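For the sake of transparency, this paper describes our internal protein records without simplification. An entry from our holdings is shown next, in its original layout:
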Amino acid sequence: MPKRILIGTVVSDKTDKTVVVSVERKVKHPLYGKIIRRSKKYHAHDEENVVKPGEIVRIEECAPISKLKTWKVIDRVTVGKTAAFDADV
């Protein structure tokens, strides 16, 4: 079974090697049909402590690391307001 990959915004990085990522999705209301936003927070493992709040990251499902952490950060999609890239310096 493939591992799930989600994209979300980092909300907190207060704990060591852990970030809290808020993932937002849009669903249709069952009765009224209006599109509404639903969000959920995931605790993800960040080994190098490089991700900061406000960045958009890609997280992947993994084996449980702790009580709350079952996700790990794969990479940063954007850093602040700009797109993330690796400079070959």
About this structure: The beta strands are 5-12, 18-28, 35-45, 56-61, 71-79, 82-83. The radius of gyration is 15 Å. The longest strand covers residues 18-28.
